[in-house]
Amino acid sequence: AEIDPAVVFDMGGKFDKSFNEGVFNGVEKFKKETGISYREFEVTNETQREQALRRMAQRGADPVVGVGFAQAPAIEKVAKEFPDTRFAIIDAVVDLPNVRSVVFKEHEGSFLVGMIAALKSESGKVGFVGGMDIPLIRKFACGYEQGAKHVNGSAEVLQNMTGTTPAAWNDPTRGSELAKSQFGRGVDVVYAAAGGTGIGVYQTAKDSGKLAIGVDSNQNHLQPGTMLTSMLKRVDVAAYNAFKDANDGNWSAGIQVLGLAEDGVGWALDENNKDLISADIMAAVEAASADIVAGKLSVHDYMSDNSCTY
Amino acid sequence: MSDPRPRQQDGADRPASEAQSPPAIELRDIDKSFGPVRANKNVCLSVRPGAIHGIIGENGAGKSTLMSILYGFYEADRGEILIGGKQTRIRSSRDAIAAGIGMVHQHFMLVDNMSVVENIMLGAESGAILTSSVAAARAELERLERDYNLDVDPDALAGELPVGQQQRVEILKALYRGAEILILDEPTGVLTPQETEQLFRILDSLRKQGVTIVLITHKLREIMAVTDDVSVMRGGEMIAHRSTAETSKEELAELMVGRKVLLSIDKQAPQAGATVLAVEDLSFVDRAGVPRVDKVSFAVRAGEIVGIAGVSGNGQSELLELLSGIKPITSGGFSLMGERFSAGRSLDPAAMRDLKVAHVPEDRLRSGLVRTFAAEESAILGYHRDPAYTGRIFMDRDAIQQDCARKMADFDVRPQNPNLKTANFSGGNQQKLVLAREISRDPRLLLVGQPTRGVDIGAIEFIHRNIVSMRDAGSAVLLVSVELDEIMSLSDRILVMFEGRIVGEVPAHEANERLLGLMMANAAPERSGVAG
Amino acid sequence: MAAAPGKIPRWVDVALIPLVNIALAFLVSGVILWTIDVNPLTALETILFGAFGYDEAIGYTLYYTTNFVFTGLAVAVAFHAGLFNIGGEGQAYIGGLGVGLGILLMDSSLPFLLILPISILLSAAFGAAWAAIPAYLQAYRGSHIVITTIMFNFIASALMVYLMVNVLIQPGSMSPESREFAPQGQLPFMHEVFGWFGLEVTRSPLNLSVVWAAICCVLVWAFIWRTRWGYEIRTVGANETAGVYAGIDPRRVIVLAMCVSGALAGFVGINEVMGVHHRLLLNFTAGYGFTGIAVSLMGRNHPIGIVLASLLFGMLYQGGAELAFEEPKVTRELVVTIQGLVILFSGALAYMMKRPIERAYLRIAGGFQRPAEQEG
Amino acid sequence: MLFNLLLSVDATFRVATPLILCAMAGLFSERSGVVDIGLEGKMLAAAFAAAAVAAVTGSAWLALAAGMAVSVGLALLHGFACITHRGDQVVSGVAINILVSGLTVVLGIAWFARGGQTPSVSNEARFTPITWPGAEAVADVPIIGPLYSELLSGHNLLVYVAFLIVPLTWWVVYRTRFGLRLRAVGENPNAVDTAGISVSGLRYRAMICCGLLCGIAGTYLSIAQNAAFVRDMTAGQGYIALAAMIFGKWRPVPAMLACLMFGFLDAIAIRLQGVEVPVIGPIPVQLIQALPYVLTVVLLAGFIGRAVAPKASGIPYVKER
Ligand SMILES: Nc1ncnc2c1ncn2[C@@H]1O[C@H](COP(=O)(O)OP(=O)(O)OP(=O)(O)O)[C@@H](O)[C@H]1O
Ligand SMILES: Nc1ncnc2c1ncn2[C@@H]1O[C@H](COP(=O)(O)OP(=O)(O)OP(=O)(O)O)[C@@H](O)[C@H]1O
Ligand SMILES: [Mg+2]
Ligand SMILES: [Mg+2]
């Protein structure tokens, strides 16, 4: 029988240009391939997560994908109520027999783009703009910093956080100001992990003739020539796989940790940025990537000890 | 608005008030309701050109409403308006101004934080950019001031002028717009005798230039002094027209109220007792560093009424506020039944009330009442902490309501409804409510400011009688008023204040208007010196 | 010309006109829905059914209503003192912080019956404290309360992010959330409460704080209209000079009113933190503080009006979510649009239909009478 | 250090521009007696309209016109509710903010299918920085060079417009007939009415001024400072502008200074992030992010006297009680 899949997007909304949109692209791809449509809901406040998940389960949806770490408590509750429904959560771990938890090694992907940034930088200063000062974003920043320092021990990494309210994920104006201030201090490559705020960062990079790095999905097309690359976090694949595995009868619960080795994270190279990435850079990054996969190079995970000491 | 045309040219070649010329104003069957209240019922009025026409009537009789209709501020439900014999539709003040009507409202229509010139040119500017308008307005203002002897500082802020000056600004506003008909709604309610006299001189010279004037007032003396004709309103209806020469105060009073009214009070000689209030070198300096009350000393004894006369703005208001604990003392002090208050000792109105000091404030709406409250709530303002009204947590609604009903009955407050919103009572009745609140608690010292401002004669009579009976019951009364009539008829002793100082004292039986007037202008020969 | 002033019965004013206004809002929303191929009538049905149609729906609607009652009352109390408190959002946030900190400290050692009153006090105290600073600055330093409360909203969110990320987060957790409270630190859900009495009710986030909200309505009503503090607040709000004349210190009244206001806003923390999430987390206020402004003004600053307005908003939140759930074409932004239209028509344009409806009423009522008159 | 300060001042101009425009808009509205907390919504709607038109037509000027037109439309809606129908001004403002926040995204999805964002507009369809003559040449001259080339030169047209709007607003408010009437109607509408001027007419005109200025502010956000519309991109700036206007006591120049102060504090805060203080170590980001707000409160408490609003603001004008 056909499955009846569902996805519950988080507060950013399915068009946040990064995380949720990645999931959206993944499930759209599934829909296009199989012709199976899915239910969806975008939450607008903390309480709706549980409501939406439960409603999906009640309506017989299976599997149900929850997007974002904030949905973890809700999934935990609802998955217990509906032991026969399969759930998947992206970016958090919920230890239940009917839940698949997908987490990413963002630090590995960020490490690679940090290398690219430092290799490309002429000033030796690279920048990072985060949305909000939360652990996930610190994880991105920490990996990025390691990557930059890996290729240039004296590289300077400037960090800025956008704000403290949910508006911080949708404030291109402030993103633009943060980027300008970093450029003013000599930064020439900036990496944004800040949702819609990134739009302002990329635009400013373009206006100032500097380079920017996108996040989550491949954002290279947003400002061709300015986008040095994008750190890919394959939430689209994770969501697609959740649906596909259920459809094909290959469903498995448990934790999936997706890093470079699993192609869960990576960096984007396409016609929009191929002129920016020289063969040397390419070689260095590929080598580091292989080392990380092989375990020869380890990237410190901020989450492992809540600090960025490496 | 085009440039204000000097009016004399029109007036000069027109014979003044001819019998055959059509009335300057004719109102036919004007009807106006505000919701359920019918403020004007088929009112007719005819005003001769070049005459001063008085309109009198109790509070709420509909005078202001009628004039506001003539001025286009309200639109009548029914009726016709003829100006100079020509039927005119007046739907807004703009129409009225175009028809040559100007109005000085009972409550001034000035913008407090704008200068006099700006207030005057508002709506009658000569162009889109002010610079030229200001110049034109100044020139015209100078001319008007010269012609009518109406001087005001054109650059002063309207809100900072004394009321008398504010009124001049209102008159100048009307003249500036070339008014040929001038309506004045209770213009003298806030003026000193000197200011009133001056106003009447101005009205007289306007009349000579051919201006038609409609004058609303509660003061029959003024009607008799300046008007040519008089109309009486009662309960929304126009009930009588008289030629002033052929009527008398008594007749008008009776027409107005519908019963005989005593126009003067007879009171017994005072039985003055122990000193209740002794003020010594009391001073108050305001934030700008101006001494508002300057080393004032006097005493008030139980069973006497001490009146303080003075042109408004000479420190009387501040004196009352000091004595009632609203303003802090700068230096000096006073003792109240032996208890001493001075600069160091912080006062507050609640503590003064506990000492049985009652205070009827000068401006009932600004500080004596809360417009949005039910009457019963306004009737406990200041006494709301009294255990009679409030327990540990909750207020005792029944007690408050009964108390208010009793006060309303005792003081004839109409309508006698404790639940009615305060704003819905007429001025006179609001005043009675305040007085009832303050008097009914047997104060040892009663501070009264302007007790009858804007109140009709029926109510004045009532209020005066109550103040005198307070005195007779042994209270000390300090009365501040700019009405010399009131001061003279109520007080046992009269102090005169000028620029924050007490410049003289006169026993009531020696006082007359001329003497007090001179003292108020600080022009009197030193007579009895400063009271100690 | 103007007919003799006829009597308009009260139900026209309090029931018919608001209904017409809401109908107008839905009419305009209907046009928008129709352009995106959603049947407006079905949509309306979905909203109403989704908000009131079954026990779970009612639970959610009342859960939102609870928040709006708290923030609406908060705005109203300040308003009676003549103060415009835009800071409900921040006060709710900090109130929740107080609850959360308290429970995190107490839940291992104290029983529920002690934790509950302490939590209520803590939420009130923290919310009041967050309102007291702007109040003090307004009363004694002349700072404008609108500016300071706006600023304090931002400061509150910065403080919360700092605490959640650096202090209160569970070690190793991705999510800036505190640990879950122990059971005695959780306010029972209403479905649990009904369960105690043997009634089967579907689960929803509705919890005992709805009862507290109802109590607060009564308390606020009594406080404002039946105590002398309320009397003093209303006096200062309506006429400050009269307040001074009456021996009331306006500065103390300002601080008092804002503290009460902040405390009420802080109770959102009871509902959200202790009642629903059972942990401290970011953004649980979700704009309820701002919506409280509209709730209070639409409810004419009176508890009864505030309850009605809160119900309306609760219905829009819950019914709107159901609409977005049922109709794939309806996005959450469309639901926001509909909410905006409802506030516009039944709040801002509340008087637009008054005249026409009253006139229509008089014509209809008159139409019934006239034939009778002719016969007589 | 000096150069850093210079850059902060430069950023101040950019950040303050929409605040100044909105504060002047609010000033017109509130001076006429209509409280406007819908600045945010008007600005957001204008930002959307401008970005949409710029994306479709490629003309920055058409975009500006569209932004202003939409914003004026909303201002008139506010007027219709508050002036004509005497609705509650705050509720109306809140309604407009919420309505716009939803509607811009709904329309954005319907028209551009990019999740409520508009496509990025090319530089030709934007207001891009203008380099003043000789800016490059003098850039290296000490002091004057950077002052001229960094501070004065190199902003987009709308920044200059905003700073010209301030003296213009001052001139209109204090030196023209309209301004005289505007000030009067906010203080005492009865005085205006009895002077034969229509209170509603005046207030509607003030609303139009307010709408025009918010329109410029929104256009600046989406196609000058940025190059696309992103949902809710105003991020509370309308409220900050409102605060600045009150801070400036409803007067143009002080309000502008308040906006500049806020922009400056913001620019400083951005540059302070990550700075380590000797002994204490790194300051928490959140403390620095809260700094502009904390400093505003402190300044407000310390130096600015009581602000008195136009007396009639917030109260619908009714002649007959
Ligand atoms: N704006 C208004 N709204 C509703 N009712 C009003 C209004 N103005 C006046 N009224 C009603 O009209 C009646 C006449 O009031 P008006 O002010 O004309 O009296 P008045 O003769 O001027 O009294 P006073 O001598 O106290 O000035 C009042 O009884 C009142 O009910
Ligand atoms: N909103 C209202 N509805 C009904 N009647 C009102 C209303 N407002 C005032 N009144 C009535 O208006 C009459 C006069 O009220 P008004 O406001 O004119 O006071 P006032 O006479 O002007 O006072 P003063 O002459 O001292 O200035 C009273 O009879 C009062 O009952
Ligand atoms: Mg009158
Ligand atoms: Mg009157």
Automatic annotation (TrEMBL), chain B:
Membrane topology: Peripheral membrane protein
Cellular component, GO annotation: plasma membrane
Main location: membrane
CDD domains: ABC_Carb_Monos_I, ABC_Carb_Monos_II
InterPro entries membership: AAA+_ATPase, ABC_carbohydrate_import_ATPase, ABC_transporter-like_ATP-bd, ABC_transporter-like_CS, P-loop_NTPase
Secreted listed as a keyword: no
Compositionally skewed regions (Basic and acidic residues) per UniProt: 1-16
SMART domains given in the database record: AAA
Annotated ABC transporter domain residues: 25-260, 277-524
Disordered, as annotated region: 1-24
MF-aspect GO terms: ATP binding; ATP hydrolysis activity
Key words, A-Z: ATP-binding, Cell membrane, Membrane, Nucleotide-binding, Repeat, Sugar transport, Translocase, Transport
Subcellular location: Cell membrane
Source taxon at top rank: Bacteria
PANTHER family the UniProt entry points to: CARBOHYDRATE TRANSPORT ATP-BINDING PROTEIN MG119-RELATED, GUANOSINE IMPORT ATP-BINDING PROTEIN NUPO
Protein name in the entry: ABC transporter ATP-binding protein
Organism: Pelagibius litoralis
Automatic annotation (TrEMBL), chain C:
InterPro entries named among the record's database cross-references: ABC_transp_permease (IPR001851)
One Pfam family in the UniProt entry: BPD_transp_2
GO cellular component, as recorded: plasma membrane
Residue intervals passing through the bilayer: 12-36, 62-83, 90-106, 112-133, 145-169, 206-225, 253-274, 280-297, 304-321, 333-353
Principal cellular location given in the protein's record: membrane
Topological type in the membrane: Multi-pass membrane protein
Molecular functions (GO terms): transmembrane transporter activity
Compartment(s) where it occurs, according to its Swiss-Prot or TrEMBL record: Cell membrane
Protein name in UniProt: ABC transporter permease
Organismal lineage: Bacteria, Pseudomonadati, Pseudomonadota, Alphaproteobacteria, Rhodospirillales
UniProtKB/TrEMBL annotation, chain D:
Name listed for the protein in its UniProt record: ABC transporter permease
Pfam families, sorted: BPD_transp_2
GO molecular function, one term: transmembrane transporter activity
Coarse class of the protein's main subcellular location: membrane
InterPro entries membership: ABC_transp_permease
Keyword Transmembrane helix: yes
Organism domain of life: Bacteria
One cellular component (GO) term of this entry: plasma membrane
Locations listed in the record: Cell membrane
Transmembrane residue ranges: 12-29, 41-58, 90-113, 157-174, 253-270, 290-309
Protein keywords: Cell membrane, Membrane, Transmembrane, Transmembrane helix
Membrane topology: Multi-pass membrane protein
PANTHER family to which the protein is assigned, alphabetical: GUANOSINE ABC TRANSPORTER PERMEASE PROTEIN NUPQ, SUGAR ABC TRANSPORTER INTEGRAL MEMBRANE PROTEIN-RELATED
Keyword Transmembrane recorded: yes
Coiled-coil blocks: none
